[in-house]
Every structure is written in structure tokens, then in C-alpha cells.
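FAQ: What does the model actually see?

It sees only this:
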Amino acid sequence: MALEHAILVSLLEQPGSGYELARRFERSIGRFWTATHQQIYRVLRRMETDGWVTAEEIGQDGRPDKRRYSVTTAGRETLTRWLREPVQPETVRHELAVKIRGAAYDDDAGRAALIVQVERYRADHVATLDRYLAGERRDFLDAAEIDAGQRLQHVVLRGGIAYERMVLDWLDDVLDTLRGLDR
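And it is asked to produce this:
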């Protein structure tokens, strides 16, 4: 997937400025696709040149004007073509998993250092799960009141929640196994 597709989806959900898009990436889209502010602005300029989005200048009192982007017919057609393409399973590259396997060839000090790494990695996933759950409470409290687009956003979020819980279960198993090697 290209960043362009994530931006098109976000702008179809709600037109907005580059800054607003960056905030969406921080809050929700970033659950499955990350981008820096600079990347978003650079891609928006290219998408505007390609005719996929248009920008409307919005005046602001006491602040510079902002550009509010929306998707054009050409942008929608591009997204439609991409949506209909088959999805290939992602190739997984997991450095921590290789380190865990390699722990069999390290000494006790090396395994102790790996335990610290796994605990830190686990803490990051706990924080991510907490953010996802907070977002779910904030955005999807009343499931009966959400539209089709929001239901699809929610199912993606639920996938992220399930993934984080699975990773945490696995990391707990890893920690138990690593700690059991010292016995």
C-alpha cells in the first residue's frame, strides 16, 4: 500500500488540511499506516499535481491561510482500482523473534539483557493497546449510532486490539520461557 491510498481513504472520510491529516495519522490511521508530517505534505503536493486531490484556500483570522484537501473523481477512481487489486500476505521481518531464537547461543548475561529488551518491547505494546482501547471508548462508545464507514473503522481497530493482545500473550510466554532457562 502506498501512502497515497491511506490519504485518499482519510480524505474521503473527511476532507481536511495537511495538518488535520497528520493528526488523523497520529490518532487513528497510524494504527496501521504511519507517516511523518513532511511525508504527508510531500505526497499531498504530488497528488494535487496528479489531479487526485484539489485544495481550497481557507482564510483564518490572525493565522496563515490553510489548504483544505478533498478527493477528485480521478483520485476516487485511483482508489477504487487499488481497492479491487488482490492483497498479498505481508512478509514478516521480526528482529526480536530472531534474537529470541539466538538466545540459545548466548550466555546467561546475554539472556538477561534479552529479558530487559523483551520487557521494554512488552511495555510498548501495553501502551499501544491502552491507546487503542481509549480510542475505542472515545470513538465507538455507542455501536448502535455508527454508520457503515465507522463500523469499518471500528473493525480495523478491533483487529489492532486483538493483535496487541496476541503479541502481549506471546511476549508473556517468551518471558516465562527465557526466565525458565535459568532454572
